[in-house]
Amino acid sequence: MAKLNLKNCVSCHKVFLSVIGESICPECRVLEQTMEEDVKEYVRDHPGITIRQLIDETGAPDKLIWRMVRQGQFDNASGLEVQYPCGKCGKLIKNGAYCPECAVKLKMEAKKFADAMKMRAHAAADKAPTIKGGAQKTYSETMYNEIEDSHN
Prior knowledge:
51% of the residues lie in helices and 7% in strands. It is mainly alpha-helical. It has a domain at 26-82. The strands form two sheets. The protein has a two-stranded antiparallel sheet with strand order 1-2. The chain has a two-stranded antiparallel ribbon with strand order 3-4. A hairpin with a 6-residue loop joins strand 1 and strand 2. The model has no long low-confidence stretch (mean pLDDT 81).
């Protein structure tokens, strides 16, 4: 039986069926997309506008505007020069969540972690008990064999 993934919309708090991990319901998604288009049009019509003016004059939520900035939706907008702090070091950046230096460091840390997990998995496989022929025993097979041995 399939498990239903019911969630409360973070915007309107209605219960909805989340198909691909959305956090807002389909109705709020349509409203958000319409608002994004209105914001983009406003930026095109008002070159040189600041983020504060954009928020005040469009009435769009701060979170929506800053998400659009981080996603690079204003990169081609005339005159809108936006900088915001890197999510790790605080250096001012123009797009993405991290500055190039922090992005490289995070990738290296992720690779080290992945390598450590692989080594750990290999070490666990090497320690696993084996039966005749070299096949590995499962935990339950090992446990049953120990119980049998203790009865003998």
